[in-house]
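Worked example 3. Consider a protein that binds fe (ii) ion.
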Amino acid sequence: MRRTLAFLFAGIAALGAAAAPIAAPRIVGGPFVVKVTAQTATIVWIVQNDGVSVRTEGEAALASPSYRVEKTTLTGLKPNTRYDYDVASGGEEGKGSFRTPPFGPTGPFTFAAYGDNRTRPDAHRGVINQLIKHGIPDFILQTGDMVANGDDSSQWGVFFDIERELLRRTAYFPALGNHDRNTPYFREFFQVNPYYSFDWGNAHFTVLNSDIATAAADEPARNAFWAEQVRWLEEDLKQNQNAAFRFVTAHHPPITAVARRQAGNPRMTDLLPLFEKYRVTAGLFGHDHNYQHYLKNGIHYITTGGGGAPLYDVDQPPAGITQKVMSIENFVSFRVDGKVIRVEAIAIDGRVIDSFEINAGS
Ligand SMILES: [Fe+2]
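Given these inputs, the predicted complex is written out as structure tokens:
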């Protein structure tokens, strides 16, 4: 039932930030659960094994931690069941729990979306604390930009420290942000290719890699990558037309109220006809550090990029489709119950800043 693999990262951390002094091996990330299906799940925990201190005359020493990623895949699980787990070496730090998804439209389930947690740890902590207070959901969709520089190992330590109490009690499905930089850290921590899809009950979720700049080395290769991803997206949506709900997540939004960024993500904007053709329920995005909600041709487009990064203005809301825009730290909560989804966007101070219902097939 269990397999354990270890990956060692060393030597690729930038020296951009000070980290905790290197001590004895200890869990500094997780445990958390990824790739959860009705029958399988992978538990990941990140051990800080060693590290390097670097100094130069006249400046304070910098510590760059080295991580070992431990993982084990569980098979033969039961659907719609809560599991508690215990990482052998972890003591209290190694305990966690998760719930497997139901098969089909049985029972209600919950998920939450947030993104852009980088750069302001206090704001990031405030959003996570509010989410925990609201009730830990069955899973999280993270809309990208967890850290400011995905090559800097010390920043991942800060991210996992803030998210510890949330991650150990839910399942995690991240999208790749431009600041995450498509590094081995992202792929090994979360055990994902930058684009993938999964099912939860009667809903289908497609997660795209919109960070075209880090997808390939040159323009022809980037164009080929995008063409292949769009081909895969269309096939994925086509094969899941029987789901009650279809969600698409990516870091870069196709629509924005941030004036200086309008027309900034043309490849994402070009996907709107595809979303309409295959009856996507809602798109969930980040990259803009605020909250935005549009309704266009029956599809909800939500940007939740207020997870800690410095806020952006919402100075030019598109006419005719804007439901709500607000420059504030936030997360979005979804409760799926049969053919109805109750959506609430919640600010860092606990205020409900937007709420609406989505009905299957509407
Ligand atoms: Fe971004």
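Take a moment to read the result before moving on. The chain has one domain: 104-359. Residues 1-19 have pLDDT under 50 and may be disordered.
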